[in-house]
């Protein structure tokens, strides 16, 4: 599994409470504790929680599938996540799993708790929902992403036409009901959905990609912003589907965490003015 790719969840001041809550629910640990960024390790996976402010709200266009080994495990997570939250699909037995439920927790993060087989050694799998103008583009997106990232592949793809669960809204047969894909050894699921949801991809949940050098940073940035993507600030971008990514050189984190706080602060100030992160400019700011 790759810990250079991981989700970032956006909070309005309550990232620390949420981090403590998830560590309690999933028996995880806090690995970084700052006023802006909390990192937690859950099942050997990294999740980043960011106190970004009130601008963005998390929504179910990206949910987190938690693959459980027993029905009791599903129940244990469900009971805790439902407290102060909302059930989006009731906990029960479905054609795809003997015990499954979809819940939005009190912090606005949605979890699909699933008793079944893992597709990889990853327990928590971000699940992308392609809706509205993106509906029908899940397969195209998987093909694009797996071309951009090394060590990538498309796994099992179940189309609506392949049978399976009936849907209240008939879906086009060629659309993806559920698919697994891997980007640089990190697993995702995705699906198409024609329901007119009141949400879509936004900055509330983004995917962070840690890069080794400027070339890798440039390559990912250029590939993900091309063909209708949009550059944003501080290493953030949106791809052509509106999915938010943060392309973050590892060197940025090293410089920001330098023991000389004054130099580290200069690095942060330089980064705040950038769209794509330019490592040399960060080094220059550090040494200025």
UniProtKB/TrEMBL annotation:
<protein>
    <submittedName>
        <fullName>VOC family protein</fullName>
    </submittedName>
</protein>
<dbReference type="InterPro" id="IPR028973">
    <property type="entry name" value="PhnB-like"/>
</dbReference>
<dbReference type="InterPro" id="IPR029068">
    <property type="entry name" value="Glyas_Bleomycin-R_OHBP_Dase"/>
</dbReference>
<feature type="domain" description="VOC">
    <location>
        <begin position="4"/>
        <end position="116"/>
    </location>
</feature>
<dbReference type="InterPro" id="IPR037523">
    <property type="entry name" value="VOC_core"/>
</dbReference>
<dbReference type="Pfam" id="PF06983">
    <property type="entry name" value="3-dmu-9_3-mt"/>
</dbReference>
